[in-house]
Amino acid sequence: MAKNMKTASELAFFSHVATESPLLCYFLVFNVKILFRIFAPMNKPIIFYDGDCGFCNKTVQFILNHERNDEIHFCALQSDYAKAFFLQLGIPEIDLSTFYFWDTKQLNKRSTAALKALNYLRFPYQLGKIGWIVPRFIRDGIYSFIAKRRMHLAGNFCALPTKEQRLRFLSQSPV
């Protein structure tokens, strides 16, 4: 009974706030929507990439074209979403030359991120997981070699995702 009274009093409070202070109510609802938008996808795999890099954009397009399911979300490292996400994880500085993959449990980077993302691709691309046998310092050395030259590898490339794909880009508002 006491629980119902508490719920009724809470309802009365929010009802009062909504009628007496619509601006405050709007502010609360708006902030809840922003927080939900920022932290709700943390239970989904997310690829963070350099949005100004043609090679990185081609990589995103490749993944979109070859993934098994439509599970992966994408986010440009330059976006406010990425900045808030990384701050939530205690990372104040984002390295734009690094490919990151959030696998719903931890943030992976460089070659480890790329290998973990292969789990979401169709056959035969999953065969690339054989790369796990290569020690990380060698894999990351190869990664760094490519990352330093990434701006020259693909030039300016910008794909236009479909409406359904756009919903999976966290750096953009859903249209």
Commentary on this structure:
- β1 (46-49), α3 and β2 form a beta-alpha-beta unit.
- The protein contains 7 helices and 4 strands.
- The chain has 2 domains: 2-37; 44-166, Glutaredoxin (3-Layer(aba) Sandwich), CATH 3.40.30.
- It is of the alpha+beta class and 175 residues long.
- α1 (2-20) packs across α2.
- A 4-stranded mixed β-sheet has the order 2-1-3-4, with helices on one face.
- The relative contact order is 0.15.
- The protein has helices spanning 2-20, 22-39, 54-66, 80-88, 110-117, 136-153, 163-166; strands at 46-49, 73-76, 100-102, 107-109.
Q: What is the typical, i.e. mean, pLDDT?
A: 76
Fraction in helix? 40-55%
Q: What is the correct CATH architecture of the largest domain?
A: 3-Layer(aba) Sandwich
Give the N-to-C terminal Cα separation: 45 Å
The biggest sheet amounts to: 4 strands, mixed
Strand content range: 5-15%
- When the domains are counted, the total is 2
C-alpha geometry: globular
Describe the secondary-structure layout.
Layout: H1 2-20, H2 22-39, E1 46-49, H3 54-66, E2 73-76, H4 80-88, E3 100-102, E4 107-109, H5 110-117, H6 136-153, H7 163-166
Parallel strand pairs: 1-2
Antiparallel strand pairs: 1-3, 3-4
Helix pairs in contact: 1-2
